[in-house]
Write a structure and sequence with these properties.
single chain, 234 residues, mainly alpha, 76% helix, EPSTI1
């Protein structure tokens, strides 16, 4: 610690400051006494409104019950709306999966149809090749116009009739396959249209239900003093 200088206090100055402070405190107390507010005089009057305490407490209880019911109703509506949205999402996913399965089924049927057509085409080619081999060495149709047809003419006619029957049978099967494929395509289109109408109808009904519930909530909010609104079980 460095050197320091001790200053002797001035007792006269200290006494003067104490006297000034004491005088100011006394003046303040005197001013408070002189400016103390007087008694307040009011005209007697009735306070608290026109309702009794029991009626006011009853109204408070009713408002509390309404508030609890509205919160419960709002929570139930939220749960219902969430559940409906989840169900709609599930139905949408199921519809998408069903459409994929139907498209896959149509693709498989088309591939099967193409394989059958290729098989029938190959069978037709081999049949024609076999018939052409049978035709080798047989006389032509103009050379068979004789009075007494021989065994070669009869064989050629049989071969020609057999070939014609095979062609007609093949054409008939191809036509039946085309008609069956067309009927399946029309049936699938009709089924998809019905499912789309069903989904649209379900979505509209759900939207109508949600809108009605929202309107009911609005109506309940516009009638806060009515505790007996629809759905209230006391």
């Amino acid at each position: 610690v460095g050197p320091y200088v001790l200053v002797t206090p001035n007792e006269t100055r200290r006494k003067q400051l104490q006297q000034i402070a004491t005088k100011e405190l006394n003046d303040l107390e005197q001013w408070k006494k002189e400016h103390r507010p007087g008694p307040i005089t009011l005209v007697p009057q009735r306070l608290g409104g026109n309702e009794s305490e029991a009626q006011v407490r009853q109204n408070q209880q009713m408002i509390l019950m309404q508030s609890k019911y509205q919160k419960k109703h709002k929570r139930e509506e939220y749960v219902k709306a969430k559940k409906a949205a989840e169900e709609a999402e599930i139905l949408k996913k199921k519809a998408i999966q069903r459409e994929k399965a139907e498209r896959l089924e149509v693709k498989k049927r088309q591939e099967e149809m193409q394989r059958r057509e290729l098989f029938l085409g190959d069978q037709k080619y081999k049949t024609n090749e076999l018939l052409n081999r049978l035709d080798v060495g047989l006389p032509k149709s103009d050379s068979c116009q004789i009075a007494n047809p021989g065994p070669e003419s009869t064989a050629w006619k049989r071969s020609h009739a057999y070939k014609q029957a095979l062609r007609e049978d093949e054409n008939r099967r191809l036509e039946e396959m085309r008609q069956e494929q067309q009927r399946k395509a029309e049936l699938l289109e009709f089924k998809q249209k019905q499912e789309e109408e069903t989904r649209t109808r379900t979505l509209k009904n759900e939207q109508r239900r949600v809108n009605n519930a929202f309107l009911d909530r609005l109506q309940n909010k516009t009638q806060p003093n009515n505790i007996y609104h629809p759905g209230y079980t006391g």
